[in-house]
Amino acid sequence: MAKVEKLNWNALDEGGTVDMDLRLDGKTALITGGSAGIGKGIATTFAAAGAQVMITSRKAEKCEAALADIGGDSDYIASHIGHLEEAERVIDATIERFGAVDILVNNAATNPWAGPMIDCDLPRLDKTYEVNLRAPMQWTQTAWQKWMQEHGGSVLNIAAVGGHTTSEALGVYCMFKDALMHMTRQLAAELGPMVRVNCIAPGLIRTDFAKVLWDGPRGQMISDMLPLQRLGEPEDIGEAALYLSAGASWVTGNILNIDGGELIRIAGELPLEDG
C-alpha cells in the first residue's frame, strides 16, 4: 500500500503553535472542475505543495489558461464528467502522463435549477444528478479499479453545507450534495484501509459559479451574519483539501464544513428578558 506522507511536526514556536509541513511531493492529483473556482484553488494549493496535478473541465481553453495560475507540474484533459465514457479516458490518460492517480478530487458541479424542488423538470433533475452524484461515484469506481485498489490513495468529494439543511431555491442541488456526503461515508467504510475517502462541505465561496448568491449588497449581508465576518475564498478550500490529502492519515469518512461558521451562527433569537 502506498502511504500518504505524514505530517512533519516541528518544535512548538514561542506562541505555542505547531508548524505542519504538508507536502505532496511524488503524488499525482486528478481534480475535476479544476479550471476555475474551488477546483482551481485546490489545484493551485496542491501544485505549490509539490504534487503533479491533472485538471479536467469541459473547455480546453479555460483549462489551458488555468495552468498558468496553477503552476508547478500540471496538465489538463478537456472532458465532460457527466458523459459515461470520460472517466476511463481521463484516468487512463492521467496514469499515462504522470504514472499514478494517488488523489482524486470530485469537485465538478452544476446547478441548472433554482426554485422549489417540487417544480423541477426531469431533464434538469437528471442533469443535476448526472454531474453532482453519478459522476463522483463513477470516477471513484474507475480510479479504484485502475489504480487505488492496488496502490492506495485518497478520494476527496466537494459537497456543500446546504446539504445539511433545506433551501428555498437550491433544494435539488443540495439534495444531491447531501447524498454525496453519504456516499463519502459509505465508500470510506468499504475502501479502507487502502483508500481514505473524505468530503469538504463549503459554505458560500466567492466563485463565478456562486456569484449570483454573493454579488452586490447580498454578499456583505451574508458576510455580516457569519461568526468569521467574511465570505470564503477558493484558497480556504484549498487549505482544507491539502490537510485531508497530505496529512490526516487517520481520518476517513469525515465531512469537513468550511463555512465561516454558517452552521453554528446565532440567528433569529428573541432578546432575553429579565425574570
How would you describe this protein?
It contains eight helices and nine strands. The protein has helices spanning 37-48, 60-70, 86-98, 122-151, 171-191, 211-214, 217-225, 234-246; strands spanning 8-9, 20-21, 28-32, 52-57, 74-78, 103-106, 153-158, 195-202, 255-258. It has 275 residues and is α/β, with parallel strands linked by helices. The protein starts with 7 loop residues before the first strand and ends in a 17-residue tail after the last strand. The chain is globular. 41% of the residues lie in helices and 15% in strands. Mean pLDDT is 90; it is low at 1-12 and 269-275. Helix 2 links the parallel strand 4 (52-57) and strand 5. Strands 5-4-3-6-7-8-9 form a seven-stranded parallel beta sheet, sandwiched between helices. A two-stranded antiparallel sheet has the order 1-2. The chain has a single domain, classed as Rossmann fold, CATH 3.40.50.720.
Q: Can you give me a brief rundown of this structure?
A:
The protein contains 8 helices and 9 strands.
Layout of helices and strands, plus pairs?
Blueprint: E1 8-9, E2 20-21, E3 28-32, H1 37-48, E4 52-57, H2 60-70, E5 74-78, H3 86-98, E6 103-106, H4 122-151, E7 153-158, H5 171-191, E8 195-202, H6 211-214, H7 217-225, H8 234-246, E9 255-258
Parallel strand pairs: 3-4, 3-6, 4-5, 6-7, 7-8, 8-9
Antiparallel strand pairs: 1-2
Helix pairs in contact: 1-8, 3-4, 4-5
